[in-house]
Description:
182 residues; alpha/beta; Rossmann fold; five-stranded parallel beta sheet; two-stranded antiparallel sheet; NADP; SDR_fam; oxidoreductase activity; oxidoreductase
Amino acid sequence: xxxxxxxxxxxxxxxxxxxxxxxxxxxxxxxxxxxxxxxxxxxxxxxxxxxxxxxxxxxxxxxxxxxxxxxxxxxxxxxxxxxxxxxxxxxxxxxxxxxxxxxxxxxxxxxxxxxxxxxxxxxxxxxxxxxxxxxxxxxxxxxxxxxxxxxxxxxxxxxxxxxxxxxxxxxxxxxxxxxxxx
Length: 182
């Protein structure tokens, strides 16, 4: 068991699936004590349970519900980390939403490989099937920008206590890119 000073502590937001889930898996398998967070408590607990079933220790892989758009939820996470660990070494801001709505049927009709679309190779071709309603853009900004800012600011005092130098990683994608009106 690592000593308190040699043990590293991490938080990964939006970690119940995809990239965040894999980041948790990799960090935890390297001996980092990780807090997996998710907005949806049921999905977060299911992801944590699945990782425990893969052999990751329940001592070093914990779940905490987090809605990055809710200041009270962010403060609750900061209090949890303060009480549980007293500091933080790694913050991965992975929680995010798309600011777009895609007409899947129209996209299929274009016969475009989703890999090409998601990589941005055919971005100009798919613009006609992508809509960005105001509500989605507002949600995208609230979670992808303000959520990252909110979480980072709340956890920064704990990150500053890292004896090994803290790391902050911000994950982004083309799916969350907002286009300006033409």
